[in-house]
C-alpha cells in the first residue's frame, strides 16, 4: 500500500513527466523531454551527448513501459505508475534501468560536467523545469545535507528515497525542487 504522502510525490513526478499535458505518460512525452533538454544544453545532431540523450530516452521509456504499462496500451496511466512503484518497493524487480535513469538524470544536472552536482548546477537544472532560484537553492541545501556538492552515490540514495520512501523527512523528497506535494 502506498501512503497518501508517497502517492502525492509520485503523482507530482508523473505530472512533470507528462510533457504534453495529455494526462498520461507515453513515448511522446519522453521524446519531447529529450528534445527540450538537448535544445537547452545546445547539443546538436551528431554530438555524442545528443545521441546519448536520445538513446537513454528510448531505453528508459521502453523499460518503464515494460515495468508499468500493465494493460499494454502504449501508455502508463497514473494508476499504473503508482502501482509500478509499489511493486518495485516490495519486490526484487529489475532495477537496472532505474539506476541507469538515475545516472542519466545526474549527468543532465551536472552542468559543468565535473562529476558532481553543486548548487549552481542544481539551480541551472531546476530553472529549466521552472523552479525559482530561491526554491532551488533551498532544495539543494536539503539534498546536500551540509555538503557543498552531491556525488553520484549520494544522488542514487536521494533518488531511491524520492520514489520509494514513505518518510516525509527524507532528504530525497526534495529531488523535484520541493517537498510539499499538496
Ligand atoms: Ca502525455
Ligand atoms: Ca497502460
Ligand atoms: Ca558539476
UniProtKB/TrEMBL annotation:
Keywords: Calcium
Calcium among keywords: yes
Domain (EF-hand) ranges: 5-40, 97-132
Domain of life: Eukaryota
SUPFAM superfamilies: EF-hand
Alphabetized CDD domains for the sequence: EFh
Cited InterPro entries: EF-hand-dom_pair, EF_Hand_1_Ca_BS, EF_hand_dom
A GO molecular function held by the record: calcium ion binding
Name by which UniProt lists this protein: Calexcitin-2
Source species of the chain: Papilio machaon
